[in-house]
């Protein structure tokens, strides 16, 4: 069994899902998931969907030492909505958003130090 399939198996069991249920969540047939498991390969587009479904980075599914419990952070609905918007932006706009986020974080740190 491939590392990716093993890591998905761990996440699937943690979420109490069968392979068939995971297939339904991904919008594919049980047979298609069975073929991925048998070959030990998953198309990149579905690897991204699986990582999104389990709310973890794709890297966690690809690495030998992943996943560890609590490696994935659960996002609130507003955070998911913001992330969805961010992912639709072109890279140059994503960079602008990151810069604004860093500026806000620095400002918040400065205000916290002033209060102390």
Can you describe what's shown?
- Helix 2 packs across helix 3.
- The chain has 116 residues and is mostly helical.
- It has seven helices and no strands.
- It folds into two domains: 60 residues, 434 Repressor (Amino-terminal Domain); 39 residues.
Topology overview:
Elements: H1 3-14, H2 19-26, H3 30-39, H4 44-54, H5 58-62, H6 77-88, H7 91-115
Helix pairs in contact: 2-3
What would a concise description of this structure say?
The chain has 116 residues and is mainly α.
Number of helices: 7
Proper CATH architecture of the largest domain: Orthogonal Bundle
What portion of residues is helical?
over 70%
CATH 4th-level superfamily of the largest domain = lambda repressor-like DNA-binding domains
Helix/strand structural class? mainly alpha
Q: Which of globular, elongated, flat, extended, rod-shaped describes the shape?
A: elongated
Mean pLDDT: 84
Largest sheet: number of strands, sense, barrel closure: none
Q: CATH fold name of the largest domain, please?
A: 434 Repressor (Amino-terminal Domain)
Q: Give the uncertain stretches in residue-range form.
A: none
Strand fraction equals under 5%
How many individual domains?
2
């Amino acid at each position: 069994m491939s590392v990716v399939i093993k890591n998905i198996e761990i996440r699937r069991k943690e979420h109490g899902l069968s392979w068939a249920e995971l297939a339904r969540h991904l919008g594919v047939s049980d047979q298609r998931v069975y073929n991925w498991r048998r070959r030990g390969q998953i198309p990149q587009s579905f690897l991204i969907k699986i990582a999104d479904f389990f709310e973890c980075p794709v890297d966690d599914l690809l690495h030998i030492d992943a996943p560890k419990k609590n490696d994935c952070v659960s996002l609130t609905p507003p955070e998911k909505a913001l992330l969805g918007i961010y992912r639709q932006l072109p890279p140059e706009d994503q960079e602008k958003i990151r810069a604004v986020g860093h500026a806000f974080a620095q400002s918040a740190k400065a205000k916290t130090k002033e209060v102390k």
